[in-house]
Amino acid sequence: MAVAARRLCHIAFHVPTGQPLAQDLQRFFGFQPLAVREADGWRQLALRSGDAVFLVNEGTGTREPLYGVDPHHAVPSATNLCFDVADAGEAARALEAQGCSVLVCPVSVQDAQGAATYTVVSSPAGNLSLTLLERTDCHGPFLPGFRPLSSKTGQGWISHVDHLTLACTRGSSPTMIRWFHDCLGFHHLPLSPGEDPELGLQVTAGSGQGGLRLTALQTGPCSTVPTLVLAESLPGAASGQDQVEQFLAHNRGPGLQHVGLYTPNIIEATDGVTMAGGRLLTPPKAYYQQPSKESQILAAGHEPKRLALQGILLDGDRGKFLLQVFTKSLFAEDTFFLELIQRQGATGFGQGNIRALWQSVEQAARGQEA
């Protein structure tokens, strides 16, 4: 029986001492400190923007103190997704019956702000583990054991996590799909009409050699759990090292490649990130020169020159549009980046935008090599 994940609580990262992820999230993307915990050589800082919460675990200890899990990782990366469940103990038993490895048996923690119970299980996505959290009697801003921090008030650029993209080894998507279906109740979400879940949406490179396969999964049409997107490279790339394979090499296996953060005003958010010094990917100039692209942008109520200047991608028709902009890697090891996304009635991810992102990342990679 699949576990019913009710919502995404937070995304956790492991970074070495001195790595500026926490500062960058605040400076460039408007995240605000929420709570902190210091123990056993680790500093754990929870940051929030809207309903999006990131937990940055900074330290060099062998065992992370909150969940007691050995990070087993030499590079900074996203290492844990925490989901809210009704009963952590029942969730652990159900997943163990499905063949999952329970890394941390159900543990109850409490302080003056309340109590919570959690369990941690492995996933098929490399170093990415899953925490299943039961917060029936927890009234603090984050979790028991964390000290609340004062933060600025006011509306941030980001309202919630829109989707999570996992980079997978070639040919592993069907296995991943079955795992997330059987264990967490995710179902196939077609990205194109009549899409075969075994094949997904295939985006070929400009030369027709290599490309990207995307498969989207969701827990239900009315669910607040973000959409899960599986990405794997197609065979045939001339270099043998496209962007997904490069992530797999740098991350030393599958993992969380990027998080899509929803913003109600992508123009304002992009301006804020750029003015703060955040680094964004630049789409190829040909993207904005496509036939009918200008009329498409105007139909969505935007100014073509403005979107081109900011590097914002737009796709859609019939009054339903999608706007996206992508950051460069937040780590020197190229193991994680962010996406800002605004939806004007669109529910998919925009095939034209996916192709443009693919080409822009490949173009940027070739520029770095040169």
UniProtKB/TrEMBL annotation:
It comes from the Eukaryota. Keywords: Dioxygenase, Iron, Metal-binding, Oxidoreductase, Pyruvate, Repeat. Residues 7-135, 160-328 form the VOC domain. GO terms for molecular function: 4-hydroxyphenylpyruvate dioxygenase activity; metal ion binding. Its cofactor is Fe cation. InterPro entries: 4OHPhenylPyrv_dOase, 4OHPhenylPyrv_dOase_C, 4OHPhenylPyrv_dOase_N, Glyas_Bleomycin-R_OHBP_Dase, VOC_core. This is 4-hydroxyphenylpyruvate dioxygenase. It comes from Molossus molossus. The lineage of its organism: Eukaryota, Metazoa, Chordata, Craniata, Vertebrata.
